[in-house]
């Protein structure tokens, strides 16, 4: 399947009302075939690596990947699978956890802008500024009015990045409540995964409906022409990876970063 067709299946049109219940996290119309997905992933990952090399050589634009999703939705796994082939010099991953005291003393976008990728880089946000309209909204960590203003502020911030040479790709990793249960149980039953289990995740699971609602508002209000959201069916990890890899490859390929022309010709030099 062509990447544009895949993209059209998952992209949220600006201003569109989203009901996550209507988005099947196990939908099989995109990459119905596991074998095909498993072939496409390494191909795209390798192409992303080659394009990143050109992006770095060109040094005039950046790509920002935003990964959002509830606990266990597969943000870490996506980074590992899709960007595995990229050299570590060209990719910068930033995880956004609970803000520190210093971060809280600034506006909520301060730490985010500081982590935006410089020209030539692919930046990956594992969680992002969207936590400030998700967990912060669900747990009432900021006044309602302040949160309400954030959707427009975020859109303006992202527009600023785009107008200054950063392409933004936002992926919401959408899993079902049953799949989350399974993944949390796996973390409990496998001792090598115990470190990943956080009892606090169970509290958030109890607020499942509130989180889904907060995600729906985020998708409606912050899917813009300049930075649309994509809702990625993520119950199957292989499908999630293949979709994100295909879209990232397609978008980077379209950016078409170019090696700069040298100011010299190879014949100008003799190496003794
Ligand atoms: P992860 O759960 O992604 O592996 P961490 O263990 O660092 O990573 O946890 C991140 C936690 O920080 C999540 O519970 C998330 O909701 C929370 N968090 C992120 N950003 C904010 C924020 N701006 N305000 C409050 N909590 C936040």
Layout of secondary structure:
Elements: H1 3-10, H2 34-58, E1 62-68, H3 75-82, E2 91-95, H4 101-104, H5 110-115, E3 122-126, H6 135-138, H7 144-163, E4 166-174, H8 177-189, H9 199-206, H10 208-222, E5 229-233, H11 237-255
Helix pairs in contact: 1-11, 2-11, 3-11
The chain binds adenosine-5'-diphosphate (ADP).
Adenosine-5'-diphosphate (ADP) binds next to helix 6.
Order of SSEs: HHEHEHHEHHEHHHEH
Mass-distribution shape = globular
Q: Strand fraction band?
A: 5-15%
- CATH-scheme architecture: 3-Layer(aba) Sandwich
Report the strand count.
5
Mean pLDDT value:
97
Q: Number of helical runs?
A: 11
User: Can you tell me the residue ranges where pLDDT is under 50 for at least 5 consecutive residues?
Assistant: none
Q: Sheet with the most strands? A: 5 strands, parallel
Q: Which superfamily, in CATH terms, is the homologous superfamily?
A: P-loop containing nucleotide triphosphate hydrolases
- What is the CATH first-level class name? Alpha Beta
Helix content: 40-55%
Instruction: Decide which structural class fits the backbone.
Output: alpha/beta
């Amino acid at each position: 399947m062509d990447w544009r067709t895949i993209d059209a299946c998952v992209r949220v049109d600006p201003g569109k009302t989203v009901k996550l219940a209507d988005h099947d996290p196990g939908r099989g119309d995109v990459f119905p075939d596991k074998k095909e997905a498993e072939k496409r992933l390494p191909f795209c990952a390798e192409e992303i690596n080659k394009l990143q090399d050109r992006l770095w050589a060109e040094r005039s634009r950046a790509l920002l990947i935003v990964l959002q999703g509830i606990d266990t939705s597969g943000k870490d796994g996506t980074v590992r699978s899709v960007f595995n082939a990229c050299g570590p010099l060209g990719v910068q991953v930033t995880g956004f956890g609970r803000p520190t005291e210093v971060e809280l003393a600034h506006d909520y976008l301060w730490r985010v802008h500081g982590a935006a990728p410089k020209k030539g880089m692919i930046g990956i946000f594992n969680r992002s500024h969207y936590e400030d309209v998700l967990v912060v909204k669900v747990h009432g960590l900021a006044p309602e009015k302040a949160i309400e203003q954030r959707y427009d502020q975020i859109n303006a911030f992202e527009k600023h990045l785009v107008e200054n040479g950063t392409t933004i790709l936002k992926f919401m990793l959408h899993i079902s409540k049953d799949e989350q249960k399974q993944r949390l149980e796996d973390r409990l039953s496998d001792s090598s995964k115990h470190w990943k289990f956080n009892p606090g995740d169970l509290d958030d699971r109890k607020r499942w409906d509130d989180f889904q609602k907060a995600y729906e508002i985020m998708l409606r209000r912050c899917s813009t022409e300049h930075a649309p959201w994509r809702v990625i069916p993520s119950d199957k990890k292989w499908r999630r990876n293949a979709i994100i890899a295909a879209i990232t490859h397609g978008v980077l390929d379209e950016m078409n970063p170019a090696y700069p022309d040298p100011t010299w010709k190879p014949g100008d030099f003799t190496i003794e």
